[in-house]
Amino acid sequence: MKNLIFSALMLFVFIFNTQAQERLTSNNNYSKWQARFRVISVIPMAGDDLEGVDVGISTTFVPELDFTYFFTKNLAVELILATTKHDVEVKSVAGNLNLGHAWLLPPTLNFQYHFYTGDFKPYIGAGINYTIFYGVDEGDVVGMDYENTFGFSFQGGIDYNLNEKWFLNLDVKQLLITSDVRVDTGLGVLPVEVNIDPLVVGLGIGRKF
Question: By C-alpha distance, which of 98, 126, 94, 92 is closest to 111?
C-alpha cells in the first residue's frame, strides 16, 4: 500500500513538473527583439490660444522605423523614429498668413502590452515623446521660433504573422505635442501656444530577431 501511494505521489510530481516545464517553455518561446518598417500618415490636429485664428498644419506621408524589446512575452518597450515636414498657415478674418514650414523629429518611447490570438497579436501602449523642431522656413514673416517640447503618446495596433520571422503591422498613435511659438511679424513678436497633437496611422512589415 505504501509503495502504491509513493508511486502515485511520484507520478503526480512527474506530471506536475512536466506541465510546469511545458508552460515555462511556452512562455519563453518568443523573440526578444523585433523591428518594423512602416509608411505613416501624420495628421496634425492643430489649434492655438488666439481667438478667431485658425492654425493650419499640413498632413504628410513619410517612412518610419521602430525597434521593440520584449521584457516578457507580453510586456515590451518600443522606440519609434521618424521625421516629418509640415507647411504652416494662419487663417483669420483678416486673411491668410503663410508661416512657411518646419521639420519635426519626435522620437517616441512607448511601453506596450501584447495579446496573442493565433497569428494575430494586438497590442496597446503609452509613453512619452520629445519633439525637436528644425529646418524652419519663415514664410511671410520675419522670423519663427518653435520651442522643443515633451509630450505623451498613446498607441494601439496589431501584428499578423506571415511566418516565424516576418509579420505585417497596422498601427495608430496619438501624440500630444504643444509648442510655444514666437512669430516675429516685423512689427513685434507674437507669442502663440500651438497644439499640434498629430494622429499617426501606419502600415508596414516587421521582422523578429
Answer: 126
